[in-house]
Design brief:
Layout: E1 6-14, H1 28-45, E2 55-56, E3 59-66, E4 75-82, E5 89-98, E6 107-114, E7 116-117, H2 128-135
Antiparallel strand pairs: 1-4, 2-7, 3-6, 4-5, 5-6
């Protein structure tokens, strides 16, 4: 990732037998689940549990690029990076690696999400506490 990306979080998950496809690789759909679980763990780690927020964060765009297979047995490391949010949407980049070779990317993924008020179901400005978690607490919002 470039310096324009703010490192958010790193987590390691075990690769489970149930994650595999018929080729004995981690199934392509499982990569999106690893990404989702990493984002939820990150929100918990910064004190913003997803189920306790007045807003929701629906994904409006998801891209995955597969570079190398993830193989069983072992663990997958997921690193999260954010870009500076744009208005009511934000982008998180994910890098997935097998822990036996952290120098090699197995996949990269990007999501774009919006901030949705739970009560009104309307897209709203990102709350300040969440904004600061995305960009770092020392960055001032320019909106």
């Amino acid at each position: 990732m470039t310096t324009m990306h703010h490192h958010l979080y790193t987590i390691v998950f075990p690769i489970r037998w149930a994650d595999l496809d018929a080729y004995q690789h981690v199934n392509h759909a499982q990569f999106a689940i690893y990404m989702q679980e990493a984002r939820i763990a990150w929100l918990d780690s910064v004190g913003l549990p997803i189920d306790e927020q007045p807003v929701q964060f629906p994904i409006v765009d998801l891209h995955l690029t597969f570079k190398r297979p993830l193989l069983f047995p072992g663990n997958v490391q997921v690193d999260l990076y954010s870009e500076k949010p744009e208005g009511r949407k934000w982008k998180i980049h994910h890098v997935l690696r097998h822990t036996s070779d952290l120098a090699t990317e197995c996949a990269t993924g990007t999501i774009i999400a919006v901030c949705l008020d739970k009560a009104t179901q309307k897209v709203v400005l990102i709350p300040e506490t969440f904004y600061r978690c995305l960009v770092g607490s020392d960055v001032v919002r320019e909106e």
